[in-house]
Amino acid sequence: MMRSRGGGSPAGTGAAGRRGGSRSGASVSCRVLVPLLVLLLGGAVPGTGLSEPPRPPDQERQRLREERAEVRHNADRVRELAVRLAEVESELAGLSAEVESALERANKARVDLRRAERSLTRSEGAARAAEAASELAARRLVRHRERVDEFIEGSYKQGSLVGSIPAFVGADSAGEALDRASLLRALARSQLDVLEELREARIARANRDAATRDAVRTAERKHRAAERARVAAEAARRRAVAARNARRADLAELRAERQRARRRLNAARAEVSTLEERRDRRLRRGRAGADGAPASPGATSSSSGDGTEEPNTSPRVETVVSRALSQRGVTYAWGGGSADGPSRGIRDGGVADAHGDYRKVGFDCSGLMVYAFAGVGIRLPHYSGYQYRAGTRLPLARKQRGDMLFWRDEGGVHHVALYLGDGRMVEAPHSGAHVRVTGVRYSGIAPYVVRLL
Fold first, then answer.
1. How far is CA 379 from the centre of its chain?
2. 131 is catalytic
3. Does one domain contain both 333 and 244?
4. Catalytic residue among 144, 220, 427, 434
């Protein structure tokens, strides 16, 4: 406790008064300084009765609770949107199948209509041909009728009809009479033939006309039915396509909403992480000040703080690195990779599909990490965002061989690679590429590395 030294004092003030004033001032100073030291150092202060490190201030604790609640709320929203997305994607798959079916029905209707049009064209051609044949038959009938009329008129003028006696009386001899008889018989037969032909021609013409009319009516009926079927099929196709497009729009909106929810979730998680790290740093400083020992390595600057890399010669790290390097040259396949090695990729509905990743066997970025760390018994989730939270996060400047590096944007973490040391890394970069060793890219890199070993 501080005491006043002797020396000049105001008049009327004795030594006892001076001592009392000093004690009072010292008490005030202790009351002010002890809580301040407790807050700053976070350790036990001799004579204060405080042996536990202080908790964060009430305001900070409340802020941390609120941010954690925000994380839970946004995580629930992301899960809800994932369920809705799965439902809409399933419905969209069904609508796509309906569109395909409607397209096939429309194709069938168009084919049937073309066939009906060809049939109608043939029937109309047959009708025109039948009409031409009827006109020809009619002209032949007219010519036959004229021949019959000429025969009858000539016989009448000569005074002899077929089979009559006067036709033979004027003959000069028996031979001439026989010639006349033969001629008359021939004429009679010709007349009979003409009459029979006329009758058959009339019947044939009537039959052709009837058949042609029936064929045309049938072809027209089929054509009308085919046209109605085509119109109905086209309408069904348009309805199916409109329904599918509407669900596609809903799906796009849901995906955008999920992306926004993920951004909010990542922001809330980052805020929670920042608050927790701030609290932990204060507590570490408090404990170090109370014990009289230097702060823990996590709170002090390491040799990497001036650009010098910390070595890491752990055999387990070398196992992880060697497993990752053993896959150099293996093709990239989105969704590919497991603890056992490369595997077939999956569809993403976009870039990966355009590169045919679902037909390839290989790794994506997080799949390569799954395989590398499986060699030391660490099972990682096949998602870079979860891998970013899988181990101890350290500042990028403290990176060591065997750490995971991450890249992120507003939508969250989108890429991961394994650090090899000396500014090099191994990664499965993107569709159309292969697992490779390359220099670390610092554009868009996350400020923390993740250390599992």
1. 29
2. no
3. no
4. 427
